[in-house]
Amino acid sequence: MNNFHYERVTDVDTAVAAATGAGNSYLGGGTNLIDLWKYDLAHPEKLVDLNGIDELKEVTELPDGGLRLGALVTNNKTAYHPTVQERYPLLSRTILAGATPQIRNAATNGGNLLQRTRCYYFYDAASPCNKRVPGSGCPAREGHNRLHAILGHSEACIATMPSDMCVALAALEATVRVRGPQGERHIPFADFHRLPGEKPELDNTLGEDELILSIDLPARGFADHHTYLKLRDRHSYAFAVVSVALGYELDGEGKITTARIALGGVAHKPWRVPAAEELLVGQAPSEDQFARAADALLEGASGFKHNTFKIDLAHRAIIRAGAMAHDPSCQRPGAKPSL
Amino acid sequence: MSQSTLPQPKPEIGRPRRRIVGEQKVTGTATYAAEYAPENLLHGYVVNAKITKGRITGIEERAAREVEGVVEIMHHLRRPKMGYFDMQYSDIDAPPGSPFRVFYDANVQFNEQPIALVLADTFEAARYAASLIEVSYEEDPFDVDLHKNLDKARKPKEGIDSILKPMPPDDYGDFDRAFGEAAATYEGEVYHRSQHHNPLEMHATTTVYEGKGKVTVYDKTQGTTNSQMYVSSALGLKMSDVRVIAPFVGGGFGSGLRPQYQVLLSVMAALYLKRNVRVQLDREQMYTFGHRPETLQRVRFGASADGKLTAVSHEAYAETSRFEDYHETVVNHAGVLYPVENVHLDYQLVPLDRFTPLDMRAPGGLTGVLAVETAMDQLADRLQMDPLEFRLKNYAERDQSTGKPFSSKELRACYSQAAERFGWDQRKPTGQHPRRGNRLVGHGMASGIWDAIMLPAKATARLTTEGKLLIQCALNDCGQGAYTVMSQIAADELGLPFEDVTFEYADSKLDASPVQGGSFTTGVVGSAVKAACFALKDKIFHLAQILDGFPLGDALLPDVTFTGGEIVLHADPSVRIPFTEIIAFNKGKALEVSKTNIPNPIKLKRYTRNSHAASFVEVEVDAQLGVVYLTRAVTAVAAGRIMNTQTARSQILGGMVWGISMALREETLLDHNMGKFMNTNLAEYHVPVHADIGELDVIFVEEKDDIVNELGVKGLGEIGTISMAPAIANAIFNATGKVVTQFPFKLGDL
Amino acid sequence: MSSPHQIQLTVNGKTQQLSVRPWVSLLDALRHHLHLHGTKKGCDHGQCGACTVICDGERVLSCLNLAVMKDGSEITTIEGLGQPGNLHPLQEAFLEHDAYQCGYCTPGQICSGVALIEEGHATTREEVKELMSGNLCRCGANTNIIDAIMAVKDGAHE
Questions:
Q1: Same structural domain for residues A193 and A278?
Q2: B673/A139 CB distance under 8 A
Q3: Residue whose C-alpha is closest to residue B273's, from B203, B217, B208
Q4: Is B748 on the interface with A (CB under 8 A)?
Q5: What is the average pLDDT value for chain B, to the nearest integer?
Q6: Do the chains contact at C42 and B682, CB–CB below 8 Å?
Q7: Chains that touch B (3 or more CB pairs under 8 A)
Q8: Coiled-coil region(s) at which residues (chain B) (predicted)?
Q9: Consecutive H or E run containing B192
Q10: A208 and A66, same structural domain?
Q11: A125 in any annotated domain
């Protein structure tokens, strides 16, 4: 644990300048960072509090028909924003499936992307963990690994990325707009989170001192056919064991023209396989079609002692999500994952 | 004029009554252990060992000492004198063995053992400095794996705790023969991991240093007397120099039955530094002491073709530490619940390098009945009998395991009333309920049983100078409602309005109280309160008899009624003597009586004394995804007299939630390679959330019991929990055909 | 070491000037600096809801906020909702429905419930349960807590 300096900034340039330097950290809602700091897992030298930057607290329409979600808009404000509810109900529903009202009132959109894994061993400062201390080992492989990855894991790390919101953002093909000392750039959502490989210490592709400015949604929101199915160890306030964000569009004959499926709780990034989605194009939605897509999505999945069940569960969940997406109106926040 | 025409106030006992501490609790003005804020308070933060077994070889504290505000760092090399003998650390609830001694020496006996305490001016400085302490160790090999050490299982050592937690009776009949001849048999295992109490309030103690070696200790405990005795004996202090106060306790569930290490550390630091010291554990540290033991059970049940249970074998293997033999009554219940004639029971402990387990809500009973009642449903299924019919067919009119009669037993009424309320007649055999969308429907039921324990206790009753009643006892209340119930008992005994009774409690300077646990508080302390009030009544009456002019004539106590703060003569109700007149006659002085209620062991021993319950549960199970929803449940309870129908209902509802949690939610994950619990937080240790709880209903069955105690109460703390978990498991089986053998039943287990 | 920051909080309508180090949580500032112990510490990590307060009209977890982050904010704690003899309707409903046992999660449940009613996102009992799930109750008073909130919520709509 450590003590730190604190600085509050009111504009982006000052923020980036203030954060430049080893150990300096941006502070948004703090719901993950302060928790990590208290657990002796994050050791910021200085916290640069972004909450005075009003320009990052807005939801604005984009010229291409998309929607820009400011990085500092809270998860709850985003979920209940009328435009989000109308055009991106998948995102709204997904956000509301995560955490609790109290946490969502503080947690920001930018911060949501940066949540660190909930791996028990990562969260215990006394345990070896390659993500925390590269080269120290991974006790999760032989230990408790229910929350862990079945896809995209490596010898070094089997952790998962815990966000719900990111699973929907992956399905929606959002873009992450960031600014750093070298200026502004746009990161496609699929490229934002990293699989562990040999460098599990790197969660994402955000550069040092880069600040997330906004999450930009494209125009397509799958408002007619979508679902977020979250399976977890209690009916609320628990991280996903497996989750599915799924959306599709139909043509006049009821055939799928575009489909997106992203899985949560199974890898260190929302798991998408575009080829699996392609399989659905031109097909009428059906259990068989979603099962084919699920096969493709889960190809190569392999589990550990306590999480192998997730392979089969994810398969079933994809099929169910396909059915649930047909009539999203039957879904309400907190509703049971059934028709 | 007959007594019946006298104006009788509505009795307090048996009515709903709001808690006397309710307004404080809902306004944030109730003060818990970590909230006493004496001047110049030091904050203590505990450092825990990061090895599982071995010795501390060095403690590097320089960096910690440089933190602004740090005052002292204590550990086994820097502490006040501590007791030498095991006896000095044996609290009221200690099992046989050598109790853990915090900071005693360099030995590390379990992972996360407390090994140092940082004291600083602020909480933040103490916490930060604690993180800077570096400890070096010499590590020894360890073993924490229950399954791998079943070959080392052995019988528990017996101690004084065996009185409350009896060992299994010897085998009777011929199990092997009966099981071999049974028309239907079931063999199965039931397993659950360790579980932690996790009261919402983390353990904390604020010690006020009063000077000259005296301390006032605001502790989170389930027994102020127990804490006082433990602290004074471990540190070699006079009992009178240690006063423990604990009016508000943010949940106990057993975690406060033994004084936990924060109390000794807080007092040690206060004495060492002659300062006021608060030590509050953090949530991770709440997993560093007692817990419900990981237990593996094996059951073999056999029945005749006509549905008579003929053979029961129940074996259990539970964890304990290397230093104490914590044991529970796990395997004794089937022989009490059912009149089976061929019984084999075995209960063994597996000592491991972990901390000693500790009673946790419905200890042993929940564990054992879970195995018994799930096995009963499996047998019923094999016999193609309705589970309720099967239980009624095997209804015990006497306790077959001892041959004794029950002091009272209204389990049959529990079954019938709960079944009716639930609509058990709608139940279909396994797998035959119509689906609801994707969900399978299952109905399950189970019986529950818990001992009605009786112990001695003392209380004081005082008629104040205003003619009102003050009762006193060191008893404290973690939310069960005892303060309110004690006041109700006192009010009725003296015929006073509830508002005229004051209860002074939760202070070790008052009459000694047993710990609050085991469902015995109302029976035990309530009987003492009643006895003290009766004695006070007698004293008041004796003064009334000699009032000037002898208004009562030659009337005796049965010839008068105490009501509304007056003594009323039956023969002439116009003769009314206000209590204030008695006080005046007593020269304005209060009248006081202390009374110890000692139960009659000879009378009690002739009976088996139990509370009973039956739970009926509906679940929906998502057929493809394996998600279980508890939609509704009814629990009927026969627990003797119900003192306060509102708080009693809450007790049972709480127990039902604990049953849901046992069946579907909570467990602590132990890493066998590292020897430590991994999900030591409330994000990954899943206690139920509001969304998990379906519609719950409670029925209290009328039950009269003149044996158990003066009040006829059996207690409610545990019984609500016990029947719920197996009923849920049985409902899952009814819905899916899946036999639940590992608890909790989770996603992926179908 | 970072020097103390001077901040202003309006707590239960009263303006308070505080000198706090950056690493002091809002929860500890309330409990240790202002001696408002009604806001409870149940985990200190955002996992239980016992520290819920209403900050600038929204329910938040005071343990996961640094006090310095809330400079200039208006905060309502359980003490500000009502006091003995002058209870908030939800506090009264908690008494009526016996919606508490040990009392330790209670201030957080009540603050959360008051905010939930104000937010207006929950209509059905199922929705109230979902949107109250950030407040754990270990005693198992769950059904009584939801009953109390439903009673006040539905009463407010009449």
A1: no
A2: yes
A3: B208
A4: yes
A5: 96
A6: yes
A7: A, C
A8: none
A9: strand B184-192
A10: yes
A11: no
User: Given pLDDT bands bounded at 50, 70 and 90, which one contains residue C156?
Assistant: low
| C-beta atoms of A31 and C46 within 8 A | yes
pLDDT of B3 > 80? The answer is no
The answer to whether A329 faces chain C, any CB pair under 8 Å, is no
> Residues B427, B478: contact at Cβ < 8 Å?
no
Taking the CA of residue B563 and the nearest CA in chain C, the distance in Å comes to 28
Domain end: A190, A217, A244, which one? A217
Q: Give me the CATH code for the C5-80 domain, please.
A: 3.10.20.30
Residues 126-155 of chain C whose Cβ lies under 8 A from any Cβ of chain B: 126, 128-130, 132-146
Question: Residue B8: its pLDDT value, please?
Answer: 63
A177: domain CATH number? 3.30.465.10
A223 within some domain:
no
In a domain, A132, yes or no: no
Write out chain B residues lying below 8 Å of A309, CB-based.
Answer: 747-748
**From A3, which residue of chain C is nearest by alpha-carbon distance?**
C23
Judge: B199–C36 Cβ closer than 8 Å, yes or no.
no
Chains touching chain A at 3 or more Cβ pairs under 8 angstroms? B, C
| pLDDT > 90? residue B5 | no
In this predicted structure, the answer to whether residue B102 has a pLDDT above a threshold of 90 is yes
CATH number at residue A258: 3.30.390.50
Nearest CA in chain B to C103: B25
CA distance C157 to C131: 18
Condensed to tens digits (0 to 9), the pLDDT of residues A1-16 reads 999 999 999 999 999 9
* Predicted pLDDT at C1: 57
Listed residue (B239, A76, B406, B19) closest to C103, CA to CA: B19
Q: Does C119 touch chain A (CB under 8 A)?
A: yes
Chains with ≥3 Cβ pairs under 8 A against C? A, B
* Domains annotated on chain B, with CATH: 33-141+197-287 (3.90.1170.50), 149-195+291-453+605-743 (3.30.365.10), 455-598 (3.30.365.10)
Contact residues, chain B, for C134 at CB < 8 Å: 689
Q: Which residue has the tokens 């110049």?
A: B40
CB contact under 8 A, C143 and B693: yes
> C146 contacts in B (CB within 8 Å)?
690, 693
pLDDT over 80 (residue A334): no
- The per-residue b/e assignment along B717-737, b for 16 or more CB within 10 angstroms, e otherwise, is bbbbbbbbbbbbbbbbbbbbe
Say which residues have a Cβ less than 8 Å from residue C81's Cβ, sequence separation at least 6.
B27, C88, C90, C91, C110, C111, C114
The domain locations on chain C are 5-80, 82-157
Interface contact A335, partner B, CB < 8 A: no
Q: Which of A35, A120, A326 to mutate to test the interface with B (most CBs of B within 10 A)?
A: A120
Give C157→chain A minimum CA distance, Å.
Answer: 21
- Tens-place pLDDT, residues B345-356: 999 999 999 999
Interface predicted TM-score (ipTM) of this complex, two decimals: 0.98
In a domain, A296, yes or no: yes
CB contact under 8 A, B128 and A2: yes
Tokens of B423: 């609509």
Place of tokens 């500032």: C29
Q: CB–CB of C59 and A105 under 8 A?
A: yes
A282: left (phi > 0), else alpha (psi -120 to 50), else beta? left
Virtual torsion, Cα A177, A180, A183, A188, nearest 10 deg = -30
Domain C82-157 class in CATH: mainly alpha
Domain extent at residue A61: 55-114+161-217
- Would you tell me how many other CB atoms lie within 10 Å of the CB of residue B428? 12
